[in-house]
């Protein structure tokens, strides 16, 4: 299988009409720049001032596959922090080769960047204290929090409107601030991706005082973002991911970095439907 992967790279490195494409830039500079989120635990975050989480670990494995395909045993991996405001712009500008955070694949985002084959499936849901309502409808008249600039905010607004639920949305610049507001009763519920809530709320010392509903607002496929229109690089990344799916690395990274999360039906389907090498 590895021979097929390297053979694919040989085809990708044939001369192309567009200059300064990602693979050529990596070969010229000897660097591969990975962008990672510092605040999206457990998927991507800082731990003792070092990148940690599922997607940075996954991207380091992708980088190893790419380096092998390019014949670069000394490829330098640069881990650059990004935030929700600048992450896609940095990719589009060529300052980040591969965005390895927690990025939902959407059509509007695909106007700016391209995405790899899906690497995770998540869903927006809500955390509350244990005495809170059991359904979304019970949030009527309450203050509910969500992080600004996220697909969760859009999904929440659409859900409230469609279900006729009159609730006050309070936006936060980061997830810890939202969870702190929930803990201090400034809000009665906080919305985020299920994986994030399981990490920030259910890992707390007083986790028994909280609950995360099983009611999911969205099913969100996440991918690795890269420069738009660079089909050779996208194919190379997808080929690397296919190798990692087939040799069991994807499941091993999931088990290591998300030890308290059991793969659901959507994640199992992702493994089943992952593209394969010829």
Fold and architecture overview:
With 278 residues, the protein is α/β, with parallel strands linked by helices. Helices cover 38% and strands 22% of the residues. It has helices at residues 2-12, 22-29, 54-70, 87-92, 151-163, 175-183, 194-200, 231-246, 249-257, 265-273; strands at 31-37, 39-40, 44-47, 50-52, 76-82, 98-99, 113-115, 120-122, 124-129, 143-147, 168-172, 189-193, 210-212, 220-222, 225-227. A hairpin with a 2-residue loop joins strand 3 (44-47) and strand 4. Helix 3 runs antiparallel to helix 9 (249-257). The chain is elongated and about 60 Å long. The N and C termini lie close together (9 Å). Residues 10-20 have low confidence and may be disordered.
Q: Termini separation (Å)?
A: 9 Å
- Strand residues, percent: 15-25%
User: What is the radius of gyration?
Assistant: 20 Å
Structural category: alpha/beta
β-strand number: 15
Tell me roughly what share of residues is in helical segments: 25-40%
Mean pLDDT: 88
The largest sheet, given as strand count, sense and whether it forms a barrel, is: 5 strands, mixed
Strand order of the biggest β-sheet: 11-10-12-9-13
Q: Secondary-structure element sequence?
A: HHEEEEHEHEEEEEHEHEHEEEHHH
Low-confidence stretches: 10-20
Question: What spatial form do the alpha-carbon principal axes imply?
Answer: elongated
Counted by DSSP, the helix tally is 10
